[in-house]
Amino acid sequence: MAITLKRLLNYVADEKLTILSGEKNLNRAVRWVHMVESIEISIFLEGQEVAFLTGAALRSNDDLMEVVKSVIENQATALVINIGPYIKEIPEYIINYCKERQFPLISTPWEVHMAHIMQVFCRKITEEDKANMELSSAVKNAIFFPKQEELYVPALERYQYSLEWSYCVAMIEIVKGVMPMEKERRRKIATYIENQLTHSQKTVIVFEIEEKILLVFHQTTEKEIKKILERVMINYCCMMHKEENSYIGIGQCTKNMKCIAKSYNQANGVLKLQKSRNQGQEVQRYSELGLYKLLLAMDDVELEKEYYMETLGVLIRNDEANDSNYCQILECYLKHSGSVKDTAEELFVHRNTINTKINKIEELTGMDLSLLDTRVKFKIVFLIQEIL
Fold first, then answer.
1. What is the pTM of this model?
2. Domain tally for the chain?
């Protein structure tokens, strides 16, 4: 998690900084600092910077207003304005503009050396980045090499993360159609998500892995995490394009860091299931999956595929060879608990057609669909189909 503006300001508490607006948004994340002396320079902001301005290149308050607007539009975390020979005072309408947007606008007198403030900020940001990199690396090692404790325990202990805490992995995947989102777009949304989490004052380890955004919570219940991420999703979905879709899966809380791989695999399984069902814009917990939990917990995917083909293969091959729809008929029939009437209504065909096809399915598979055991067997197969 990136360092917050509030923490940075605490490090320079003696430097006569005055917060003019955005007091409720001081928990926003900060990635770097940037001198912004003109509109042309402000467009190079990438988001999460603290922008600094003396006004040396500005000719009027209108120019100042345009810089302020550009800084906000380019997702800077805050703007620090040096009051002195170039900007004698900040007009009230500019302060009000920032207040309306809850954007942190900060002033500092000319005698305060902005270079010193920037130096302190840069040093603290660098220290925090180092900590984030080490923590992210430690979590990755705990996921993929859980038995090699020397790869993750020292880093966790160095940053006061207890090995015995409960951890929970949440995973976010944002796709464009059926393809992963472009790296820069994903990074921009990841930045926004991180801002939202820091604003809620929730300490979370955030990093990207295999084109997904990983969030590692500690000492937090799954229900709390779901509520947090539902709020976050509502906010960042406003940034998404029409063809983009978002999926969020939450694994179960672990007993300790040593079994975090289990939570990671569960979250990944939830995402896979959501995508197969096309359940975008939802936050789902592994704990809520019912029978799917048993299927996702199986390590032998080949065994699942074998069982799937043994049970449903004859219908799949027949559908492919004869352009029939026996698999669709059977799945719909099971969904309606064997009701021919409801199946016919959903598929817009006559009940006699359904009866004829059910008889043919029984003939092809050699199974009696009036038996509960047979229906359960096929029901499980269709569940497997969703996670393969």
1. 0.74
2. 3
